Amino acid sequence: MFELIAAIQFFALSIIRFPDSWKDTLPAMVIGMIGIFIVIGVIILFTYGLNKATSSKKNDK
Fold this sequence. Notes:
By secondary structure, the protein is mainly α. The chain is built from two helices and no strands.
């Protein structure tokens, strides 16, 4: 519990000490999030393509 309180206090003090640090880190975070979404999209498209390529067509007559 003490570690959690110490971590929160350290985070709060770093924000107070460096109030403009988000201006430096926000572009990197945005680029990282865009990269995550692109990778997830590629995985979804790859999975969709594999399902289409390997699915067997059922001819019910």
